[in-house]
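Hi all, a correction to my earlier message: I attached the wrong file for Polysaccharide deacetylase family protein. Here's the right sequence:
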Amino acid sequence: MRIALLLSAWLFCLGAHAAPVNVATLDRGTWPENLSSPALFDVASRAEILMFAHGLLASEALDEPALKQRLGLKNINLVSIDDLRRQLWQRLLDNYTFAQQSCEQDASFCYLVENMDDLREQAGKFEVSDNSFYIGWAGPSSTFHERYLDELLRKAALFPQISSEIARFGDHERNGDELNDRLFLLTFDGGPASISGNTDWLADYLRKQKINAIFFALGNSLQARAEKSSSANVQALYQGQCVGIQGWQYRSHSHWVDWQSSITRSASLTQGLLPENYLPLFRPPYGQRRPDSQGFFQSQGLQVALWDIDSEDEAGKLKADESANRVLTLMLLWRRGVIVFHDTQDKARVALPWLLHATAQSGLGWQDCREAFR
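and the right structure:
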């Protein structure tokens, strides 16, 4: 039975990954204003919400064959796609409601939206005129949101056969939905890096900024770091930060026979090595985990920590500045959420300072890692 299930999953994956997806990014230099006040953050937020909603509405006109062609997939889960669309519309309505609270200070992109019908109507007729102050942003933003929507729809189309952060399997899984408006949580995956590497730099930088984050560590990397230095060195590395686990190796935990021991072994090591920093949170590599794993996680006292703002900073994807621009655009669109970088990549050392500088006066906040996912 196990072999049959694995073969079925493999065949589905083979048919699913028929075409690559262009990773969405947007040059924030096309936006003509700095985010130098909460009101100006809201202006940019309203614009991104309406542009994404415009593309989302247009996508609903596609029938199944057209949607398969657009996503480059042979098989799609229409029920999962419909569920995602409903969630996206509700999130967009909530976010636009927050964003329009400053319309008296700046009326740009302010339209009468009191309910879902209003939002869909405004999304359908949304356009930026050729003589608009924002015309230089409109085209690049439209392209960004079309590509980003395709990323989301593609993950939904493959779910749950290929699990990802696009949806939750139960209440034991958290993705930051409960965060307040303008509140964001920083997270880092795949570390720790080698001694004096990116993890050291990022943790020190965050401390200097009086911000903290959750670093999701791999058991083998954490053990190697402790063996090459000392337990005290590792404790100093993560001073003031929070540490969760990603398993023993950075590999999918959805079809790995030893996935449970990968998690328990890592949790035991991390909790013993970093008792002041450890949080009982598991971040699944690639977002992949088993749909029937709720009982296991609950028995271990663990929650699954997902994310909703992906920097796409892995090797071979976006450059550092493109990653930073992508994150900021998604912060404007979603207005709250869990941001994921990789502390084994040099890109975060460029993207994070730029991001903090660009949003310093915009009225947003950074979630204390010790209060996250409670």
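Sorry for the mix-up. Residues 1-19 have pLDDT under 50 and may be disordered.
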